[in-house]
TrEMBL record:
Keywords, alphabetical: Membrane, Transmembrane, Transmembrane helix
Source species taxonomy: Bacteria, Pseudomonadati, Lentisphaerota, Lentisphaeria, Lentisphaerales
Record-linked InterPro entries: Pilin-like
Presence of keyword Transmembrane helix: yes
Name of the protein: Uncharacterized protein
SUPFAM superfamilies in the record: Pili subunits
PANTHER family in the record: GENERAL SECRETION PATHWAY PROTEIN G
Gene3D superfamilies: Glycoprotein, Type 4 Pilin
Regions crossing the membrane: 16-37
Length: 248
């Protein structure tokens, strides 16, 4: 092979300036794409969380149809939570056993009960995370807690005042909120406001909650919005006439 051919097949080398330009372009593209990808991931997680709330709502309404219009409740004396009831009766797609109800660490397939955006670590890592709770209320009036139920008591769905404006399910990202636990299974703003300054509690923007209404709709609202301008939601636990008020 002659020298002319050798010169012809030599590869052109990049100069230092050209390499620096390429690196700079990659850096610019990364700075543009990474926020976009981050927003897309955030929207995807929110969509899954919203879907979870809707699926749980559907399971609750199947339960209601078979239980004389009553919402599911929890029983402290036999360690049964509202989600245990949905699972043991197969409304939520599970078929959990009495042994699993007794031993919560054996509960599995909790996908619809966990928001993918939750960063809270459970107190007991052997259990499955439950990112949602039902709206807590008391049967005995007068009471400022006016949700759909609690341990051993629940309302009838046809007794709810303004179903489209009444909260049924709320996000509740606490370390002790795990599947089958009859503590933290019901909550409301009075208990949530204690976590207002805890960033990990809020999975979809600070101070905002993924909420399922009694009519089955799901909305992302600020905690302050749920009080409808009546009181300061970060200071008051009084739910009367707010979106937490399901009772007449």
């Amino acid at each position: 092979m002659n020298s002319t051919n050798c010169r012809a097949i030599k590869h052109k080398r990049f100069s230092l300036i050209e390499l620096l330009v390429i690196v700079a372009i990659i850096g610019i593209l990364a700075s543009i794409l990474l926020p976009v990808l981050g927003k897309a991931r955030k929207k995807s997680r929110l969509a899954i969380c919203t879907s979870n709330s809707k699926q749980i709502s559907m399971a609750i309404y199947m339960y209601i149809e078979d239980q004389d219009d009553y919402f599911p409740f929890s029983s402290e004396h036999n360690n049964t939570s509202w989600d245990d009831r949905l699972g043991s009766m197969e409304y939520d797609g599970r078929s959990i056993t009495a042994e699993q109800v007794d031993n919560k660490s054996k509960l599995t397939d909790a996908s619809i009960y966990e928001c993918p955006a939750s960063e809270v670590e459970l107190t007991n890592q052997n259990n499955q995370k439950r990112s949602y709770s039902l709206n807590y209320g008391k049967a005995h009036k007068p009471s400022q807690f006016r949700g759909i139920g609690t341990g051993s008591w629940s309302m009838k769905s046809n007794e709810v005042n303004e179903a489209s404006q009444s909260i049924m399910i709320t996000e509740n990202n606490k370390p002790g909120n795990y599947l089958g636990n009859n503590n933290n299974d019901f909550t409301n703003n009075n208990f949530i406001k204690a976590f207002y300054d805890t960033p990990k509690y809020w999975t979809h923007d600070y101070g905002r909650l993924n909420l399922a209404m009694v009519d089955g709709s799901v909305r992302i609202l600020s905690m302050q919005h749920t009080y409808l301008g009546l009181r300061d939601a970060t200071a008051s636990g009084n739910q009367i006439n707010t979106m937490w008020d399901c009772q007449d």
